[in-house]
Structures are given as structure tokens and as C-alpha cells.
Fold each of these.
Amino acid sequence: MQLCLCSNFEDVRQGLHRITEILKSWDIGGDDLLRAEILLAEVLNNVVEHACADLPPSEIDVSLELRGTDLHISVNDRGRAMPEGKLPVAQPGLRGSDCAQFREGGYGWALIRDIASDLHYSRVSGRNTLSMTLQCTEIVMPG
Amino acid sequence: MHLTAEPHPDATVITVGETRIDAAGAIAFKDRMRDLVGDTPPRIILDLAGVDFIDSSGLGAIVAVMKLMGSDRKLELAALSPIVQKVFRLTRMDSVFSIHETADTALGRPRLVS
């Protein structure tokens, strides 16, 4: 399943509604659906907020594929490359220490890393591709 | 961003009249909250019963409001939807805020049983 969104927050918001409906039609529900919604919101908002900030509107392509209980997600955009060309690490100290508990930002990548597995980033021909897997735990496989 | 404040004897309840606190609305939420919490009593209960989605920007905005209220006032949360609860739990922010089942229980009122 492919979707094309425009790189602004409003379009991402509408895109997330469409994605939720698609996932529901694939019988993804409960905690799996919550995690998928949080994950996709963080990934797509990052594209708008960082990769595409201050750039003319461009397209974001989202690809979703359910294989068994694994939801494969790929997001392709035409924005700037990730800093240093690699995935940001979740900032250390987000959990546990008093000072970190009062941070106003930096939760996005912590959520992405917590929810997704097999995170992979590549930059080819001026495009970013971020791919990841969400392991669904509530899908009952036939047989 | 639609927010309404209702004063009670020992707390002010601020009700969020939006279904999402997300990247598109986080700044408006923070600005409106800043106006509302200006000179309120020490305890504020943020009623999230109508909010069915929050992302890291919305979470950051709530943390920012808590910080601007200072250490002598307290921001508490009520009526978290499953997804809001999940975001707070995954980021461990559920251990930072007092979280109530509903705004009524936060005010010490008995739950209505239908």
C-alpha cells in the first residue's frame, strides 16, 4: 500500500487518519494500532519539522506492507539529509535522571526506537528513505 | 486551540476541547496554556478526556507548561485515552505527573455509577 503526502503538518495529520483506517482494515488493532499510530506520527512529523523545514512543499511517500505479523514501513522524502548522514541516537539520559524528566524535546526518537525494530536509513539521489518494522503482537495468524 | 478553565475551591480544571495535541497544534496549546495558568491557584488539573491523540511535540508542550508553572504549583492530568497513556508510559512521563482517572476523581468527587 502506497500513500503520498505533502510535507506539512496538516497533510501529515490527514495522512495519519488514512493510515489508521488502512491498518484497521488489515485487522491491526489494540496495542499494535496504538504503537503504529505513535510511530508513524513521530517519523512523519520529523520529516516535516527537520528534513523539510523551510523548504518548498514536497512529497513524502509512505509504503506499508503487512507480512505475517510484521508491518513493514518505509518513508521516503526529498528533504535534507539526516545530520552526519545517519540515524540520531535517542538522547542519553532521557529516562531515569531528574533533569532529563523535564526536557521539552527529544522524545520523538526515543519513541521511534522503542516501538520500531530494524530501523534503517539511506540517502540516495537527494532522497531520504527510513525503513522499519513494527512487530504486531495481537494479530492472530490463520492455522 | 480550544481550552477552557473552570475554577474550583482547591484547583482549576482546564479542559482541552481538541481531539489532538500534536505537532500542528503544540505551539498554540503552549501559548494558550501560558495565558490560562498566568495567575491560577497552585493546583491545575488538565482534563484530557476529549483528546484521543498526542505526539512527542504535544508531550513536550505539556512538559513546557509544567516548567513555566514553577516548582510551587502543580500540573496534574486526568482522563488519558489509551494512546495518550501509551505515549506517557513509553517516555516514562507517567512517573512525573499525577494522573487521575477523571477530572472529577482528581477533585475528590465520587465516580458516577450508571
Amino acid sequence: MLSGNWPSELSQFLWVAPTVLLGGLAVVLGKRPFYREFPCFFAYVLYVVADNILLYALLKVKVSGNHYAYAWAATLLPSIALRFGVIDEVAKNLFRESQFLKVAARRSLQVITGLLLGTGILFAVWAPGNTRPQWFASVMVVNRGAAMVQTGLLLSLLLFSRFLGLSWRRHAFGITLGLGILASVDLATYALRAEFAGRNWTRFLNFILTGTYFVCASIWTRYLLVPELKPVPVTVVPDEEVETWNKELQHLLRQ
Amino acid sequence: MEQGIATLAPAMIAAWFLVVVGLIALAVLLYAAMRSRTSPGDLEEAVQAFRSLDIEAFRNLVDSDEEAFLRDHLPLRKFREIKRQQAWAAFLYAWEAGRAATGLAMLGQAAQRSSDPKIAASGAQAAENAFRLRVQTFKAGLILLAGVLFPDLQSRPIPALVDQYERSAETLFLIGRVSSARGLVGSKSA
């Protein structure tokens, strides 16, 4: 049976659970050579854990709303920077095996980043936020813009991989999926938070955000703790069929 | 007050628009996650697609001499009609070649992870060629679509695509030859 205080208890659970999950994940990953392959993601996980502990402690010692908001805003910017670092890492991992893609796809990603940044700035001008104090609205708008660029970049990586037939490594895909979910929910919730400052709205959106952190922490744990699949011999098509392709291709080349 | 409402309305529209964008992005990500579970890629389909393409017919469709001949000898209306049909047919070829290139890239990457250095090397080469072919088919597709929409425009030559297709076919042949001698290898993606 639910206690009368269940919203507060659920909120605490959604705050503590992803922190514990990510803390455990960081300990396990720290013992593996994983952090050499994805150093930014490793740093991001450590940062999120430290950030959550700090903000939770501030809430528990009952600092004023303003002080809490300053602390939250101050810890937001490094988090945004680290997320961009993670996206760069994932992109490098995806294009690692092709010299052509290292140049062509990264150039395309730079163009996409430019376009998304431009769109983010246009939105900042068009909808500069309606909450008070104004600096708080500005932080929401900056976070909204960053989430827009991050979501766009992560979706572009998924579309590129599908378009080009690139195969993902399990770990890189898990990181992309988790971060993509986080960024897209950030985009939706910060778009609303920039415009609606009501207490009920804030509480509802905080639920969604902390719930999303929990989901993403679970996704990262699931994908990163399961070992990468090793290449296994698969007989996709019988040898005689390969021979038939060869004949067909020889025929094609002779034309 | 009216002014306040007027300035608030675009902000509200922007907010809800971004909410929709965020939710669509979320749906795409979840779809990608589910797809990655189910389909490691059908390599046989890729080769079937490669096999079904008649590159010589494509070459004829985008031949600039042929176009000049038609332009000189047909009435403008008839020329436009034929040009549109040719450009559309060539676009479909480029589309299929692009799909085949995607399949070839997957085959190449699977072979690239082989423990046999020869298969791995030819796999890497095939994947690299397939990526280039994919990008070229995309560019060619855009040019051909422009030809469908504006048949009066002088067509830009698309020779690189044909060359790239042949290079890709050669590497596919190479993988097939090495693989059939040693057993085909592959791996599942994420």
C-alpha cells in the first residue's frame, strides 16, 4: 500500500537509484581498460555521480532556493561540455575503421553542428524563456539549445550508420542510446521549464528527468557490463552460393 | 496585456514544438534500439541486390552523348518526357546501387573482423569502397532527381558512380574468392 508521502519517496528513489547504479558502474569500468577507450564517458559518469551527491546534500542541509539554483546552474555547464565530449568519442569509435569516413562523415557532422547551433540560437531569440529570475530562464534556454544540438548529433550518427551500413560496437551503441534518450527528454522538459515556472510543472518535470536518468543509468549498465560480442564464424550463405556470386560479378565486370 | 499575450504565443508554440521534436527523437532512438536487437543484416540480400543491377543499362541512361542526340532530334515536349523517364529510371538504379552498397559495407565489415588476415584486408577494402559508393549514389540521386524535376537542365556527368560500382564489385568478388577458399566469416553487430 502506498504511503501518503509517496511522491516525495519516489522522487528520492529516482534521485538515489541512478546515482548508486552509475557509481557501481564507474567502479566496475574503472577496473577495466574501458576508460581508455571512452575516457570522456567515464569522466561524465563520475561527474554525474559527484553532481548528484552534491545537489542531494545541498537539499538535505536545506540551503535556500536561490543557492540551490546557483549550484545547479554552475554544475550544468561542465556536464554539457562532457556530453559533447562523449558524442565526439562515440563518433570517432563509429568511424574508426574507415579513412574515408573519418574525413567525410566528420565534415558532415561539423556542418550539422553548425546548422543545429544556428537553430538553437534562433529559438533562443524567438523564445527567450518566460521564467523568473531572468538568469534562470537563460540557463534553461542554454540547456535547451545544448540538448537540441546533442539530440540532433546523436540522431545523425544513428542515421549515418543506417545509411552507410556501419556496424556499431555494443558499448558505443549503448552509450549513444542512453545519451540520446537523456538529451531528447532534456530537450522536451527544458523547453517546457523555460516557459512554465509553476511549482506543479517543476515537480512533474523533475520526476520525468530523474526517471529518465534512472532509465539511462540502467541502459548504460546493461550495455557496458555485458562483454563486447566477439566475431564468430557464421556460414551466412553456402560456399557454392558464393561461387555463384563470383560468376555473376565476373559477368558484370566483363560487360 | 494584449501585447503580452502576443509575445507569449510564439514562445508557447516554440516550447510545444520542441516537446514534439524531443518525443519524435525519443521514438526514433527506441526504434533504433529495437531494430539493432532483431536484424544483424541480411548479407545474402545485399548480394542479390548487387547481382540484380545492370550497370551497363545505367551507363546508357546517364550517357551525355545520348542526351545530346535526343535533344537535337526530338521535339522539346517529347525530349522532356523521355528525359524525365530516363532520369527517373537512373534514379531507381542509383537507389538500388546505394542499398546494395550498404549491404556490401556490412559484408565488408563482417569480413574485416575475420582472424584470417587476407579476408580481413579484402573486407576492409570492400567496406571502404562501399562507403564511397554509398555517398556517390546519394549525390547521383540528387542530380538525377533534379533531372526529373528540371529536364531542360544540361545533365551533369556521373562517371564516378559507375567506376566506384565496378571497384566495389571487384572487391566483393575478391572477398567471395578468398572466403570460398577458406570459409566465410562474419560477426553480429550491436
Amino acid sequence: MLEIRDLTVEVDGRRILNGVNLKVGRGEKHVLFGPNGSGKTSLVLTILGFPQYKVLSGSILFEGVELVGKPIHERARLGLGVVFQKPPVIRGVRLGEILHYLGGDSTLLHLLNLPEEFMNRELNAGFSGGEMRRTEILQVLAQKPKLAIFDEPDSGLDVENLEIAGRAIDQFLRDRTGIIITHMGHILRYVQADFAHVMLNGRIVCFGSPSKILAQILKEGYKWCETCPQALRS
Amino acid sequence: MVRDVSSSLEELEDWYEEFDKGFPEWYRRLRKKAREIFKEKEKSGEPVGKYGVDFNLLDYLPNLSSPKERLENLQALDREHREAIESVGVDVKEKERLGSHLQQDTVITYQKLLAREGIIMETPEAAILHYPWLRQFVHRLVPIDLDKYTAFCTGYSIGGAFIWVKEGVKADLPLQACFLLETEKLAQLPYILVLAEPRSKLNVLSGCALSPKCPAALHGSITEIYVGEEAEVTFNLVHNFQPGFHVRPKVGVMVEDGGTYIENYIERGKPESSQLFPTVILRGRNSRAELRSFFFARGKADMDIGGGIIFTGEESKGEIVSRAVVTDEAKVKVRGLLKAHAPRVRGHLDCRSLLLSKNADVKAFPNLSSTQPDAILTHEAAIGKIEEEQLYYLMSRGMSPEEAASTIVRGFLDVAKGLPETILNWLRRLISETAEEIF
């Protein structure tokens, strides 16, 4: 469904992705691990087409269609949906308005343990970390993308809301394709993933089973990845 | 530049001497004095007002109107005029309205209260004849010599409305007062006086529009609003003017103990020039005011929009909010004045502008002053373009750049308060449509 080949990207003249390769088949769930600043969010925003992320070389194929050069909304309409890590505050624009635009309604709120009054809340204004995360997930559930990308959906969530968010994502992804980006891997307690990748210095350096890689990271940290022979080879 | 007082002024003087005959002496004297002040200011070459672009007031005549027939109802208005008043929120079927008032040029052609006891609506001329005690209210809040324009408007006004809500009467439905300009080069100068007695509630929708056949005119007005103890008045000005039109509504408000005044101003058209600076005196303890303006400045419009709140009542609270979407070659000045003269008052000024064109221009003038150590006055002012981050975010949900931009603009302007649901929904639709026109 998604095939990224040798993708090199810069922002303001600074290279942030160095020849990324990633293949995600239909119905697969992939996890992308990586330390802060390794390029995970940059990869998401490049896939989505944020203009400041300049593609120097490589390609991003989505269902065989080249995404590089297409504006953001066309990529979204082709079937890409993203849960943002840091969504902007948009004053005066209500969450309900966006949900209606996406074809969703207030019933989705219950799924994520959000009160009805959130329909009338201004987008991301005064939201706690957990509320922001859940309203982001909510929008992507309403958007029903073919490929959903979750950028750190577990950050800022307490134990109870982590479970709520995790189960909602897991159920949503059951017959869909998804990429989950996580730093600490908490969300994987609830979401079944098929494959995992590790990103270091703007490159995907490792590929394997999510549980094995997570166990290794939790045991030895990302420092270990930097010395891993496989990573050094890539 | 020194201007000659033209012979047309002498003719006007004769006309107004005749027009004012029959009014009480104090009123005739007040009007004559205003005209004299105007003539002096005109002679000395004073500009129209302290703020806003200058223009020649005598290019417009206040008594030009042709005779008009009284209307059975608002639906009897011909189609183009009906559409004009509908464009400023007037419901010609008068559904969910307390009543209606229509002034075409200088002639009041329709006035009807659909409800209830305890509310009086008349022309100001009739009210001055009926209620001699009005003397203590008329032209007391907007000084006649404030500037050349207020002198002009006081001395030459014709028509307007007197609205009086008696003690404890709460009117939730809006009273729609509409001012339609039809004659080229007319100076339409209505006088509006609102008295809200203690514990009453009133919502006024004042819609000002023009006939599509009228290419140029002046719409001015003086509005004085007295909000009694624990009364609440919401005054909404909705305008739809075009190039060729100068707009100068002057509003003065006084609020007593525990009273609330809320004003919403929206301009949906592209006036040649527009200048507003409603001034509220929060005289009462715990009184409250909110002045909100949200407007599009398009074409070559020159808009000087702001407001002032003077806090003389202990613990009074006030907020001035302004949102301007500025594009094309429009020039905008946004002003806000907060003056604290009483203990423990709180005031906040919040002016933001979205600048969408390199050829447009916005300037913000926040002005805060206090003589009270325990008063808290704050302000924030921002001028900027649409944030790309917001635009990309909405595009990632599938919106085209135009849809995303108009959604952001709509949200930016969504600051109206105190409006009945029907008007609020209408306003949101209007903002949406206008935002879509821009992108």
C-alpha cells in the first residue's frame, strides 16, 4: 500500500531524512521506534506533504500513486490520515465542525471517553495532553483513512486513557493499515502490530518483530541500536 | 484649508428652522447651537472627526429624501430593497422578532411592535413631543461639539428611533431597526435613543444597507443608550455598504449598577470609509460592557474601528474584542481605550487582525490608562497572516487550501456574544459566505 524508496529530505537546508526505505502492505500494522530527533515526525510530515519538508530524492508511492509533488489535501483524499503529535490551536473552529466535515458525529466521543460538550470546544484550545491525543484519534477515526499514521498516540496519556486510546486504535486498525510511531512503546500493550522498525539519524536501521525490538530497546535503550551491527550496516 | 460657508447652508438653515418649529424650546435651541458649532468648525477647516478619513460633509445633504409611502408590512417592500435589508439580518416576515422599524432615507415607512406591554417604540421627534422629561437624556452621552460630525449629525438629524423598555420587562427576541439608503448624495442621520429601565432586557438588531441604485451617500447616526440597574442591552450593528459610502455611527452608552451592555458590530460590505468608536461609561458598581467588532475590510475600504470603556463604577468590568480580516487594498486602524477611574475594575483589550494581502495595511492603537492602583487593565494585539501550520493541519483532514483558509477565517471571526440563536446562526452563515468569497 505504501512504499517509500530511498527518501532524502531537508528542511531549511538541513538534511533530516537520509535514504529512508519502508514498505507497508495492505492490512499490515507497523511500528516505528526511534529516539527523540531521529526523524520519525519528519517522516510523517513528509509523507503528508508539508511544504517545508523538501524531497531531494526518492519516492513515496501510495497504492501505486506517486505522492511527491501532490498537495496535502490530495494526499488526505487519496486515503492518508494522521494523528498529530502537536496539533495547532485553531480558535473559533469547533471540534464538532471538523467531525461533521469528516462525516463523523458525537457518538465517536463516547468511544474515547470524551464528554458531549467537546463537540463545541475550540480545536485544541485549552486541551490537556490526554484530551488532545484523544480528540486527534477521534478525528482520524471519523476520517476513516486507508492508511492511518499515529504519531506518538500514547504521549501524555494516563493509564486509564492509554487503555481507552489503545483499544480504540486497535479496533480501528483491525481490518485497516496503520503505522504507529512510539518512543516508549506503551501503546503496544493494546495494539497488535505486525512489524517494527527503528529509526536513527534520519534512516531506518532495523526491521523485525515488535515485541523483540521493544524488549531490546527497553532493556538497553536506543544507545544499543547505535552500536548494533545490523544498524551500522544499513 | 478654509472653506466658505456656502449659500446651501443658509438654505438648509431656513429648512431646519421650519422643520424644528413645534418642538420644545430646549430642543430647538440645542439643534440650532449644534448647527452653529458645525458651521464654525467647517469655517475653520476642522476635519470631520478625530479618527477616520476626512471628507467634505457638505457633499451630502441631510434633507434630500423624496416622499415615501408607509408600508403595510416589510414584505411589501420592492424586491431589491427587501434583499438589501435581508442582507443585514432583517427578517421581512418578522418571525422571532420583537418588532420592526424601517427608515428609508429620512422617512420612517414602517414601525411595528409585535409584542408586548412595557415596550415603547416611536420616532425620536414624536418622543420629544410626548415626553418632556426626555430632555435629561437627549444628546447627553455623545457631546454635540465632540467633532464636526457630531455637531452636523445633532443639528441636522431626521428620523431614527426611540426605544423604551420599562422596569422588569425582559424582551428576548430582537427588535430589528433597519436604515436603508436610497437617494444619491443623501446624508442619512438618524438619532437613536434607548432607555432600558432597571432589570429590563433588550436586544436590538440595527441593520444598515443601501439600495443597489444608490451609488454614493453618507450614513451617520447618533445612538445614546442608557442601561438601568441590572438591565441588559445587546446592540448589534450589521452593515452592508459599498464604495462611495461613508459610514459614521456614533454610540454613547451609560451603564448603572449591575447593568450589562454588549455590542456587536459587523461590516460585510466594502464601504469607502467607516469610523466607529462606541464609548461606554460604566458608572454603576459591578456594571459590565463588552464591545465586539468583527469585520472584513475589502476592496479599498478605509476603516477606523474601535471603542472605549470608561470605568467609573467600582468593580466594573469591560472587554473590547476586535477581529479584522483585511485584504485587497484595504486600510484598517483598530483602536481600543480603557480608562480606569474606580477601585477594583478590570478591563481587557483583545485586538487581532488577519492580513491577507501585501497591499493592505493594519495599524493597532491600544490605549490603557488608570488612576487606580488596584485596577487591572490588560491588552493583547496581534497582526498576522493565516498560520501555515493551521492551514496544513486542516488540509491534512482533506480540506482544499480554500476550504481550510475560509474555515480558519470563520473561526477567527466567531466572537459574537449575546445574540439570539437565530441571528447567531445567520451571522455564522454570513461570515462563511463572505469568507468563501475571499478565497
